[in-house]
Amino acid sequence: MSPAPHIPVLLDEVIAGLAPTPGAVIVDATFGAGGYTRRLLDAGASVHAFDRDPDAIAAGQAWPETREQPPRLVLHPRRFSEMVAALAEAGVAAVDGVVMDIGVSSMQLDQADRGFAFSSDGPLDMRMAREGESAADFLNSAAEAQIADVLFHYGEERQSRRVARAIVAARPLETTGQLAQVVRKALGYRPGAPKDPATRSFQAIRIHVNAELDELRAALTAAEALLRPDGRLAVVSFHSLEDRIVKQFLRDASGAVANASRHLPASAAGAAPTFAGVARGIRAGEA
């Protein structure tokens, strides 16, 4: 067995929700360190695992299940929004379950050279796939108004204009430490405060660089297309932006959209619901 160095927070709850059985085909849309995949394989399921991070895929290639005939673990070095096309290429038209754990992984946060966190100084990168526009590229070239919009919409930073103005004035920025210092100075950082004011800006820039919310919307639609009747979807979200997207998707897909007012005519019938039995969300530590 290949141990996973990181145990997902809601591992037991996700596995219980997916209820894997021997021979089931399940998509782990966010492979990471393989915490979900490990438990799914141990239950006898076959897993198609997606990750755009080449480091995660490289680590997964050492797992013995990739060498079984046929392999019970198939790794896809692609965005999870591409799961329909990727599985079609693999000859898979439908699956029994899909799990997504949205956002940055602890492994990425722990590696200073990936540039996701300000706990250790490193290059201002933040790219999950290690390709394309980096955080430094964006911050050093974008207009002040665009930076402010990113901070406001993806980080819910109420003083986004002040922070954006400070970032532009400090350019060029090359390291996570430099960015954190600029944001803290702009917002008035008090050592010992319960939350570092740079947290919201780092989240916003990471989401923008990786198009995370667009990816999530596309992946939910892809999962809907792939799941068999009675298939199961489990999504772990970290912050309110992701949570709202997932809840809205499930409301729409389950037909649970109420009329705005009882005094208005009923809405025209739309597409038949594709999801049923949508469970109440679980917070870490509740179960």
Structure description:
The chain is an alpha/beta fold. The protein folds into 2 domains: 11-101 and 213-254, 3-Layer(aba) Sandwich (Rossmann fold), CATH 3.40.50.150; 113-210, DNA polymerase, domain 1 (Orthogonal Bundle), CATH 1.10.150. It has 12 helices and 5 strands. The protein has helices at residues 11-18, 35-42, 54-60, 83-89, 106-110, 135-141, 144-155, 160-170, 176-187, 198-210, 212-226, 240-254, and strands spanning 25-28, 46-50, 73-76, 95-101, 227-236. The protein has a 5-stranded parallel β-sheet with strand order 3-2-1-4-5, with helices on both faces. Helix 7 crosses helix 10. The longest helix has 15 residues, at 212-226. The protein is globular and about 55 Å long. Residues 259-264 have low confidence and may be disordered.
What general outline do the C-alpha atoms trace? globular
Number of spatially distinct domains: 2
Uncertain spans: 259-264
Describe the main β-sheet briefly. Answer: 5 strands, parallel
CATH topology of the largest domain: Rossmann fold
Strand composition percent: 5-15%
CATH architecture group name of the largest domain:
3-Layer(aba) Sandwich
Q: Share of helix among residues?
A: 40-55%
